[in-house]
Design brief:
Elements (H helix, E strand, L loop, with lengths): L1 H17 L20 H5 L9 H8 L3 E5 L13 E6 L6 E6 L1
Parallel strand pairs: 1-2
Antiparallel strand pairs: 2-3
C-alpha cells in the first residue's frame, strides 16, 4: 500500500514537471503585415522592356517578384506581397503583370 502511494506521488510529480507555466510578460507574436502589391501599378508594367526586380518592386510596392516565361507553369497560391510578371524571352518585354 505504501509503495502504491509513493508510486502515485512520484507519477504526480513527474507529470507536473511537464506542464508549462505561462509567461507573465506579454509577447508580441503578431507578425508585421506584408506590403501589398498595387495592381494598378502592376498593369502599367505591360509593354515595358527589361526592368530590374528592384525597379518592379519600387513601382508596384511588392516585396516579391516572380518572373515567368510565357506558358511557364506556376503555383496558384495567392501572396498579396508578390507581383508576377511574364516576360517574353526574345524581346525582354513584359507581356503580363499581376499581383498575387
Amino acid at each position: 500500500m505504501i509503495k502504491k502511494i509513493a508510486l502515485l506521488g512520484c507519477m504526480a510529480f513527474a507529470v507536473s514537471a511537464c506542464s508549462s507555466v505561462p509567461s507573465s510578460e506579454p509577447t508580441n507574436s503578431t507578425p508585421s503585415k506584408p506590403t501589398e502589391c498595387v495592381a494598378a501599378e502592376a498593369a502599367k508594367l505591360v509593354g515595358q522592356n527589361d526592368l530590374s526586380e528592384a525597379k518592379i518592386k519600387q513601382l508596384t510596392k511588392a516585396t516579391i517578384v516572380r518572373k515567368l516565361a510565357p506558358n511557364q507553369p506556376m503555383t496558384m497560391d495567392y501572396r498579396i506581397e508578390r507581383v508576377t510578371v511574364t516576360v517574353d524571352p526574345a524581346t525582354k518585354k513584359i507581356t503580363n503583370a499581376s499581383c498575387g
